[in-house]
Amino acid sequence: MGEREERIPEGEIHPLRPQNDGGEPRYPLLGLSRHRMEIDGEGVTTLVAGAGCPLCCAYCINKSVLRQAPTWVTAAELLEKTRVDDLYFQATGGGLCFGGGESLLHLDFYGAFRLLCPDWRFTAETCLNVPREAVVRAAALFDAFIIDVKTLDPVIYERYTGREQGPLLENLRYLADTFDPARLHLRVPLIPDYNDEADQAETEAALQEMGFTHIERFPYLIREDKQP
Question: 148 forms bridges with which residues in the sheet?
Fold first, then answer.
């Protein structure tokens, strides 16, 4: 699922500077992937990939979210790019999945965009390592969350992501208490050189104790030519 790469030196990370038109929120678009099924939530979905992420994971599958300069689009401009799939969304209960980098960095934009397409299903793909207020706002805007938990071992988590685990845990507890668990899909990967199946099992058990029911365990697949 991922490729092994060295972490990006700080000076090579593209600065994410929002661009606004008279205060109108914009989204840092990197690309669209249409007609996706059983990957990003219910029904037929379009993945909207955006720039920016608070983590710098060792096996990041999409380094472009940190390196590539995005195209900043307004809500009306993104609707024009995605409305072609409205019939699929309406027929299957699908919609848009915002991911690529960290989706919850762009909440002002989602508020504006939701007003233009209130019937579409919005799914956020997130590492959940963001301030609590971002998750509170997102819970009112999104229909579902796909959460990349990685591991609940704090040492492994920080070594792999470069960030402390605290915000993730706090936000998991918040969602467990306030959000429909059927609309929360949690992912727990087996990460070569970082964790093992025992850690996966311990993380899954801890998540179940919090009340989560939709937990996916899977291995990261590293290409042979990228093996140490």
Answer: 187
Confidence at 95, pLDDT banded by 50, 70, 90: very high
Please give the class, per CATH, of domain 10-226: alpha beta
- What is the pLDDT confidence band of residue 65, given thresholds at 50, 70 and 90? low
Domain residues of the chain, as ranges?
A: 10-226
